[in-house]
Write a sequence for this structure.
C-alpha cells in the first residue's frame, strides 16, 4: 500500500477547494476518495477487499464507543 505525501495532499487540497469552493462536505468526500484511490492503486482485488474490511472494522469500533 502506498502512502500519500504531504506535498501531494496540499496540492490536491488546493485543487479541490477551487473545484468546490462553496461546499466543504464535497471537498472532504472528494479528498477522501482520491486518497483511498492513491493508497490502493497497486492492490489486487483480494487485497482491496481486505483493505475496505479492515477500515470498516475500525470505523465500527469507533462508533460503538
Amino acid at each position: 500500500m502506498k502512502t500519500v505525501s504531504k506535498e501531494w495532499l496540499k496540492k490536491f487540497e488546493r485543487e479541490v477547494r477551487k473545484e468546490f469552493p462553496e461546499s466543504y462536505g464535497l471537498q472532504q468526500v472528494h479528498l477522501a476518495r482520491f486518497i483511498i484511490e492513491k493508497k490502493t492503486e497497486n492492490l489486487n482485488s483480494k487485497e482491496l477487499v481486505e483493505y475496505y474490511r479492515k477500515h470498516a472494522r475500525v470505523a465500527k469500533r469507533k462508533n460503538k464507543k
User: Anything to note?
Assistant: The chain is about 75% helix and 0% strand. Helices lie at 6-19, 24-39, 45-64.
